[in-house]
């Protein structure tokens, strides 16, 4: 417990310091603890240390944790690639989806979202680095997808997400995050009212915060090196 609590405290301090350096209020930056591949017991420890929002990428693993931790008031975020046949459990059990990048998946999430739940909060994942191995809509196709998603019932379009190509260079890190921020600004200039930039992880959260991140997705800096499934 002490190790995980200390790790969480260290990440929160990094976020606070980065916000101060960027001239931003720390209250405008949410820490999403990426718990994929880590057991429910680790999530429970993080909850005890004050963490409430958790990110998952694998549906079956996530469903096991949702059930095991149903006694806790957690907010689950889905951040991984979405298969068509896995949309219903995501729509039924998650508060947020960060990785929406296709109209077909948006249709299925909208249809699968129970009417008794609040709208599913969604971000569009953008492939800002142009990597063939990465999921995400291209910047060129972003506007049309955003318009499509915005019109669907039971989905609330909140913003954009990206996983840029890894870099140890803070300048390169900031350029990729700046690109996502600029895309969000362009959408808002078209009449959207987006308020969320989901970007930045354990190794680059400072650069992301400097460019306007409102959600940083941190796994290994909290839970340790990721285990293989």
Compile the SSE list and pairings.
Layout: H1 2-22, E1 30-34, H2 40-48, E2 53-56, H3 59-68, E3 75-78, H4 87-93, E4 96-100, H5 103-112, E5 120-125, H6 142-150, E6 155-161, H7 170-189, E7 196-198, H8 205-210, E8 215-218, H9 220-223
Parallel strand pairs: 1-2, 1-8, 2-3, 3-4, 4-5, 5-6, 6-7
What does this structure look like?
- The protein is of the alpha/beta class and 229 residues long.
- Helices cover 42% and strands 17% of the residues.
- It has helices at residues 2-22, 40-48, 59-68, 87-93, 103-112, 142-150, 170-189, 205-210, 220-223, and strands at residues 30-34, 53-56, 75-78, 96-100, 120-125, 155-161, 196-198, 215-218.
- Strands 7-6-5-4-3-2-1-8 form an 8-stranded parallel β-sheet.
- Helix 4 (87-93) packs across helix 5 (103-112).
- The longest helix has 21 residues, at 2-22.
- The radius of gyration is 17 Å and the shape is globular.
Features:
229 residues; alpha/beta; 8-stranded parallel beta sheet; 9 helices
Query: What is the spatial order of strands in the main beta sheet?
Result: 7-6-5-4-3-2-1-8
- The radius of gyration is 17 Å
Amount of beta strand:
15-25%
* Quaternary assembly: single chain
Instruction: Please report the total strand number as a whole number.
Output: 8
How many separate helices?
9
Structural class of the helix and strand makeup? alpha/beta
Shape: globular
Proportion of helical residues: 40-55%
The termini sit apart by 23 Å
The unreliable regions are: none
Mean pLDDT: 95
Order of helices and strands: HEHEHEHEHEHEHEHEH
Largest sheet data = 8 strands, parallel
